[in-house]
Amino acid sequence: xxxxxxxxxxxxxxxxxxxxxxxxxxxxxxxxxxxxxxxxxxxxxxxxxxxxxxxxxxxxxxxxxxxxxxxxxxxxxxxxxxxxxxxxxxxxxxxxxxxxxxxxxxxxxxxxxxxxxxxxxxxxxxxxxxxxxxxxxxxxxxxxxxxxxxxxxxxxxxxxxxxxxxxxxxxxxxxxxxxxxxxxxxxxxxxxxxxxxxxxxxxxxxxxxxxxxxxxxxxxxxxxxxxxxxxxxxxxxxxxxxxxxxxxxxxxxxxxxxxxxxxxxxxxxxxxxxxxxxxxxxxxxxxxxxxxxxxxxxxxxxxxxxxxxxxxxxxxxxxxxx
Length: 322
Prior knowledge:
The protein is of the alpha/beta class. The protein folds into 2 domains: 4-169, no CATH class; 179-314, no CATH class. It is built from 13 helices and 12 strands. It has a 4-stranded mixed sheet with strand order 1-6-5-2. A 4-stranded mixed sheet has the order 9-10-11-12, sandwiched between helices. It has a two-stranded parallel ribbon with strand order 3-4. Helix 3 (99-107) packs antiparallel against helix 4 and helix 5 (145-154) runs antiparallel to helix 6.
């Protein structure tokens, strides 16, 4: 048969996929029974990701007897009977774990924070650089939150990684449009017992219908709220230097904010300076809660320690996803 990419290699493949690139078609999960892992195939098959120094290639096979030691290659054995939607076809007879299976595979060895972040990124509308971080461009969603739920529901009982994946899904926000939106969604979507400042119900890039006057001002039939909070009829936005500088962009941003306010949707803007240090983020959180009319709750010492830890982890600029 051929090789099957999984784990970090599959994650790298999916999260760097840009708009316009072909999405592989689904493969019969029965084909995985013929997956191999040998150096000859690694050299021959022209895979979309290759082993690099410090970043090995991750392959998945169905039987332990085929697990051989290869330089800079990690071979994983999966004996679980996997459902439809587990694999996609690559060229040359190779397979790649689907976004749904990739989420399950990564959940098996990651913390809850890491699994929530990966779920948000897999369900996002942006591509990352091959460095494993940093926004590259907009793209269509690879998978939806409902897709992930349905996939996990079809797994055999006690499938490895499923328990952590299901726990993380409670806090995954789909359709985020940037890494910073993922960060804010995690901060305000998770409860203090997990290091968050929520939990708030968040709908990322929610389509908001606007009237004809606003349509003429924005030259659009609708707008999207970055992180829409339906329980508070509020919108949390991130104003980055990349997308909100320049005369036209500033005018559009302010017009957009005016339209939201006219529709009685409270708008709060986060900027890099407001979320760049823990102290400023604490102050921003207080102002944000004040603006939307949410009660200020004092965290316990343990909750505060977790909030400090989550902030430091999310703001570690050396950290990569794969």
